[in-house]
Amino acid sequence: MYEICPHTGSSDRSSISQVEKFHITLNMEKEEKKFVNKAEEDEMEIYGYDLCYWKLVLVTVGVICSGGFLLLLLYWMPMWRVKATCKRTMLKDCEVVLLRTTDEFKIWFCAKVFIMPSLGANPLQNPNPIIHKVSNGHSVHFCETSAEENKNDLKKYLPIRYFTHHSVKYFWNDSAQSFDVVRGLDESTFCSSIHNEHSAGLTKAMYDYRKIFYGVNEIAVKVPSIFKLLIKEVLNPFYIFQLFSVILWIIDEYHYYALAIVIMSVISIVSSLYTVRKQYVMLHDMVAAHSIVRVSVCRGNQEIEEILSTDLVPGDIMLIPSNGTIMPCDAVLLSGTCIVNESMLTGESVPVTKINLPNPSEDPEAMGDEIYSPEAHKRHTLFCGTNVIQTRFYTGELVKALVVRTGFSTAKGQLVRSILYPKPTDFKLYRDASLFLLSLVVVAGIGFLYTVVNSILKEVPARTIIIESLDIITITVPPALPAAMTAGIVYAQKRLKKIGIFCISPQRINICGQLNLVCFDKTGTLTEDGLDLWGIQRVESACFLLPEERACSESLLKSEFVACMATCHSLTKIEGVLSGHPLDLKMFEAIGWILEEATEEETALHNQIMPTVVRPSKQPFPESKQATNQEMELFELSTSYEIGIVRQFPFSSVLQRMCVIARVLGEKRMDAYMKGAPEVIASLCKQETVPVDFESVLEEYTKQGFRVIALAHRKLESKLTWHKVQTINRDAIESNMDFMGLIIMQNKLKQETPAVLEDLHKANIRTVMVTGDNMLTAISVARDCGMILPQDKVIIAEALPPKDGQAARINWHYADTLAKCTSSSPAINSEDIPVKLVHESLEDLQMTKYHFAMNGKSFAVILEHFQDLVPKLVLHGTVFARMAPDQKTQLVEALQNVDYYVGMCGDGANDCGALKRAHGGISLSELEASVASPFTSRTPSISCVPKLIREGRAALITSFCVFKFMALYSIIQYISVTLLYSILSNLGDFQFLFIDLAIILVIVFTMSLNPAWKELVARRPPSGLISGPLLCSVLSQIIICFAFQILGFFWVKQQSWYERWTIKSDACHLLDATNTSSMVHYKNETLDDEHNIKNYENTTLFFISSFQYLIVAIVFSKGKPFRQPCYKNFLFVVSVIVLYVFIFFIMLHPVESIDTFLELVCVPYEWRLRILIIVIVNAIVSVLVENVLLDMILWKVVFNRDKQGEYRLTIPQPPQEAVDHWGVCFLSSLFGCREKTPKAKYMHLAQELLVDPEWPPKPRTTTEAKVPSQENGSYQIITLT
Q1: DSSP 944-971
Q2: Is the pLDDT of residue 1166 over 80?
Q3: What gap in Å lies between CA 407 and CA 220, rounded to an integer?
Q4: What is residue 63's predicted lDDT score, i.e. its pLDDT?
């Protein structure tokens, strides 16, 4: 705190400045760690920095001296970039912020801080024209002088500091002393305040003030220019390394391969640019459609102004046109009713009725004032991107909505943000690939040092030393590796496209090869979209009648049961077509009635919303009697049977019911009809009207997979008038009802569902159901489709939040427990408690005898109060019912937290979050969900899931094969070059070219063509390169190749005809000559071969290494059980045969022109045969080691994996298997692999639960959260009596 006055002395200012700097430095060091988005999914640490000019000068010098490499390094590393050019400072004064995510990825970002002038610091409060406190935390007092009075306008403005990250603006919050997102009216705003304070609209001044903070209301998906995308792609470290390699090769006059790499890189870059830009354009088009519309808003002076939707800010009162519109923002309905299509959010094109938000201060129905929340009050909220089809209103009143969120803060904006900036998916293959490349760099470094030292000792020119030592790096780390790794994924993508699966994230294909758990939505995914009416079961005198197939019989026409079916729904007519929830539609169609809605003119005429009328298509006729024509007309008018729906209480997922008040034409008293979940309806009815066997009948239906809806009726008091009905509390109506019976709906399984789930079950892939439907129905469907086997037990976890001083608790119920009690076992039958079985493989533990089921409410309570139980529950959780979209995402994350590779299959936008978060999300819809989902299936069938996993496994194995092959190619060439460097020789340019182009590129691009194996097997491929079997495979082949090259290199020197090769050497005819003194004669002659390429060692190593590339290609081209055998890969087989024949031909039958081109020398025919023997022995050893030693012995015995990734448990051994068991133990202890703890958390947890006597919970017990004062553990188990 300090004062600034015009007459203050300069020395005082200087001393104040020094003191201030000292305090700032001191405070900065003591400043506690700051966060933005605290306790949210995108929480980040934040640090403040100021630009430091002397650091900037040093960095500039470093960039110039390093030829720009330092600049690239700083571009790749945001943290280094900021720390190298800035100094740490207080957050409130900073010019640059450094952000780091708090998740497991710890990703760094940086952003520049901007300053804008504003009249205030809070957009939701009225700005004070006289401000004495600026937003950066310093309190300033301005001394009033005549000169300052002339600057009053400037003094009114505050400098507001902000930065933008991932399309969201963060403003400095002085009270929190950190940056924060400016919220709309969706947080901390009471419902009463929405009506009393915000319903008048904004004044022009307030609107302008808010516009400064909230900016333009648009979800801007900018399609980057091709140039910008190109620069971003080209600056990838791999492409920079390729550029370095190409420059080096051009200096070394190795033009042809350099040109080939350039062509491959260009093709790869163009392909990548096309894919990325196409995704941006798709997303832009989806968002841009109808995003800018003209809207009418009410200003504070009651004027109506027409503006563009991009100019809306929170607080604006938007008028909803009667013919509908696409919502450009999130808004809460203040007056009138809207019919909205929310397919963008829910995935179902079902019209939803939105009613105005009740005013707690006026509306007796309101349950008291509460904070408005778009999620909690979603039946009053119009969400951005949803389609308002039509509106209903009182005459003279406009349908008004208060804008609460705009831009990226809206529900649609958050979805688009999650697509634009996805959370990275951690996959072991890519992490291991980086480590593997790092190890190759280390090998390259050794070769680099060896080359430099060896060349200096042999007095090689400096230019040659530099080129050859750098060249060894490009040999060891192959620049073609990215293109080679991409090939298999591209081929898999094309195969997926052929079977109707489209992929927008090709890297996810590999990850799909590791999936060991798949979550399925139910409706439209496992089952058919629609529901069919199976029948009805009415109740009379508190007894169930027999089930009836049809509800439209004449005897039931005037019954209250049919009247309830005709009125208790939310159907409406849109352009003459009946629309609404499929369940309501089926129910209404089953009785064959007609629905008529009042026109706008009729509504205006009666000064109120006219009721919707329903009537039978055929009117019931009373007994005939004589009457005049005029009397007959009056009689028909008065006796026509029609029911008017006076008031509707919409269906609430929280209440699990809906209710209507209706009146039969001509009747004085009104009727209340209610339908909903049977248990809820029965609890609201008079107990004497509910049948005694209600629960058993209901259980029987739900067990068979039927969706059951209960109906109830109540005759209202005659004193209830139309006006009283419009304001009556819902609870006053929904009580003391008469139970009328059940409607039984059937949701059929899709034909292919059981077979697909059985295939996944056989492949040891867990299946989980995540649905918004009723739990018992979901359990029944899970049994029908084979997700839960007939003999398995289902444990329902019913979690209750803390209430009235009681801790949160979970009640455990066994869904399948029937009345089996006998005199000898009065409590719980032991058969009902699951038996723990010790399985041979931990993967089998997932198929043990019990499954957990819970609904969304319970899941939320468990996540909040029973964190320790979450892993245990998801380990055996199979049915998750009544799950909200965000809960589906939380479930996927919970499964990933215990190391499952999770797939998600859904068909709606409500699955978007889960589809995006899962390792492999498959959308069965081509609507909005497909933009968020990595995969989209053209056929809406789950048969795409095993196909995708098979292709993923094939692509993953292909990636391993290619990576191993490229690693061996590098090492083989590295060995050859290093051996030749020892005699100051090298491979010739055309030898390099033949190896790199004719052998390597051809093999790489054909060995990736193996299609997927025809069925899913119970073993998964390895997830990473750093695993025992793969490392053994690579290292064993390196040792073999090294041994045979060393053998050839030194054996050739032992031959009697060997000499240091010169242009006059002729070893082919040397054996026939009698004079051997010529060897001495040519020994000291000047060599005509400048680079010493032509020599016997070079020719020997060229032939051996050429065959080695082909040998390891065949050895690594694994087929079954994940890919088709390599002999079915026609192009690969042809390529290998052609290359073998060609190399055999030029080795055994030298052609002078070819030898000259490849710079080969003539060697005796006997030596050629010996090279052939070396090659054949090399091939035999390589094949035996890979296919016998590794696959049959080490893989199955030492690494003890019959099912990849799963370690065996110790199990009792029969006597006849004792010898084998001890052999296994010996080998295991020899290799240090005995009794390893499983790496995956879920397997480790499964082992622990096997010996936990308290797990699974016993029937009719309760798990209660501990009181916070208790220290040990977070919950305790209490058995209820």
Answers
A1: HHHHHHHHHHHHHHHHHHHHHHHHHHHH
A2: yes
A3: 8
A4: 87
pLDDT digit string (tens) for 135-185?
Answer: 344 433 333 333 344 445 545 677 888 898 888 888 888 777 888 888 888
**Rounded distance, CA 509 to CA 532, Å?**
38
Closest Cα partner for 5 from 124, 148, 129?
148
Q: What amino acid is encoded at 330 in this protein? A: D
Buried b or exposed e, range 1103-1114, using 16+ CB within 10 angstroms: bbbbbbbbbbbb
Sign of CA dihedral 903, 907, 909, 911: negative
| CA–CA gap between residue 404 and residue 419 (Å, rounded) | 23
Q: Which residue, chain included where needed, has tokens 């089809």?
A: 389
Kindly report which listed range (449-453, 527-531, 647-651, 692-696) carries the lowest average pLDDT score: 527-531
**Number of CB atoms found within 10 A of residue 664's CB:** 16
- What residues have CB less than 8 Å from 8, skipping those under 6 apart? none
In the structure, what pLDDT confidence band is assigned to residue 444 with cuts at 50, 70 and 90? confident
558-572, 610-624, 1164-1178: which is most confident: 1164-1178
Of 255 and 942, the structure prediction assigns the larger pLDDT to 942
CA end-to-end distance (rounded Å), the chain: 66
Of the candidates 844, 775, 1118, the residue with the CA atom closest to the CA atom of residue 964:
1118
Catalytic position from the list 316, 521, 584, 907: 521
Phi, psi torsion values for 556, nearest 5 degrees: -100, 0
- Name the residue among 943, 965, 935, 1146 with its Cα closest to residue 496: 935
What count of other Cβ atoms lies within 10 Å of the Cβ of residue 165?
A: 20
Instruction: Provide the token pair at 627.
Output: 């009457």
Which residue, chain included where needed, has tokens 């939707």?
A: 309
Q: Helix (H, G, I), strand (E, B), or coil: what is residue 1068? A: helix
Tally DSSP H helices, then E strands, for the chain. Answer: 44, 44
* Alpha carbons 664 and 750: distance in angstroms, whole number: 41
DSSP-based three-state secondary structure for 820: coil
Beta bridge partners, 615, equal 594
Length of the chain: 1281
Distance from C-alpha of 591 to C-alpha of 453, rounded to nearest angstrom:
94
What value does the mean pLDDT of the chain take? Answer: 75
What tokens does 370 get?
């509460």
Beta strands in 801-918 (DSSP E): 809-814, 850-855, 877-881, 902-906
Number of CB atoms found within 10 A of residue 585's CB: 17
Question: Identity (one letter) of the amino acid at 133?
Answer: K
pLDDT over threshold 50, residue 1223: no
In angstroms, the CA 1107 to CA 1109 distance is: 5
- What pTM did the predictor assign? 0.72
Q: Please tell me the distance from the alpha carbon of residue 1159 to that of residue 1148, in angstroms, as a whole number.
A: 16
Q: Which amino acid is at 419?
A: I
Strand partners, 906: 923
| Residue 521 annotated among the catalytic residues of the structure | yes
pLDDT in tens, 588-643: 888 888 888 766 554 444 444 567 788 787 765 554 444 444 444 433 444 577 88
Rounded Cα distance, 614 and 616, in Å = 7
Give the whole-angstrom CA distance, residue 403 versus residue 21: 45
3 state SS of 860: helix
